[in-house]
Design a protein that fits this description.
With about 250 residues, the protein is mainly β. It is built from one helix and 13 strands.
């Protein structure tokens, strides 16, 4: 091969190498995706697909699923039904925000009547009450209610503990008449800042610990290091003699 031929070959070889390198760069830029917690692939030290490791959310296998302790339908006598439930998060170092749930109401013979959906927060290591008022049930008697949270619905994240400021229930008083019962609950704010729009749920139980009534109210403000009263009323008598009153301030996760 002459020197001129070799020179042309070297030049073509250099041009080809540059073209291949350029093509490789274009292909990498087009098709390569930097590993992330939303790429649908288990990578970058993740414990599962887009969870655990360097990702903010924990994998389902790393936590216990929420437990529905009970679901109860309460007839209001107006063609509507109040539903109360209790959900427990047994994970003391994991929490989940805005967890979707569904509640199904059934009539006699497990006939489907109605379904409602919503979301709730699951702070670490606590029981969370849920009160859904005025579900349309029509003329059929509601004989059962079922609350369901899909196993993969909560997006769990690690926490060192419950950082919420919770009002303390210092006193409850039952008054009113037989046909219009009333409960007052005094809430104390242990923090140095005022709390506003505090949701409060009350459960009324009989001697057999069955929930016979429930309600929810909003306390507009509880002063710093102060107190306020949550008031609950009903326009019909309780189904049986109340023996236990449970009051739950509901504070969302930060």
């Amino acid at each position: 091969m002459s020197w001129a031929a070799r020179r042309r070959f070297i030049i073509l070889l250099i041009i080809g190498a540059v073209a291949v390198a350029f093509l490789a760069i274009v292909l990498i830029a087009t098709f390569y995706k930097t590993p992330s917690c939303t790429d649908g692939v288990q990578n970058q030290g993740e414990a599962g697909v887009d969870c655990g490791g360097s990702c903010a959310y924990l994998c389902t296998a790393q936590v216990e699923p929420p437990v529905v302790l009970f679901t109860k339908a309460l007839d209001t006598g107006t063609g509507r039904t109040d539903v109360v439930a209790m959900v427990e998060n047994k994970n003391k170092n994991a929490a989940a925000r805005k967890v979707p749930y569904s509640i199904t109401l059934y009539g006699e013979g497990q006939v489907f009547l109605q379904e409602v959906t919503g979301t709730l927060d699951l702070p670490p290591g606590v029981r969370v009450p849920l009160f859904v008022p005025g579900v349309v049930s029509g003329r059929q008697e509601v004989t059962g209610a079922f609350l369901d949270i899909a196993a993969d619905a909560p997006r769990w994240f690690a926490v060192a503990g419950d950082s919420r400021v919770l009002p303390v229930v210092s006193d409850t008083t039952r008054s009113g008449s037989l046909g219009a019962p009333r409960i007052d609950a005094v809430l104390m704010n242990p923090s140095a800042r005022a709390l506003s729009n505090v949701h409060v749920i009350v459960l009324v139980r009989n001697a057999r610990k069955e929930v016979i009534a429930a309600s929810e109210t909003i306390v507009p403000s509880i002063p710093a290091d102060g107190r306020a009263t949550a008031l609950f009323t009903w326009n019909r008598a309780f189904a049986s003699l109340p023996t236990l009153i449970e009051v739950f301030p509901v504070i969302p996760l930060l």
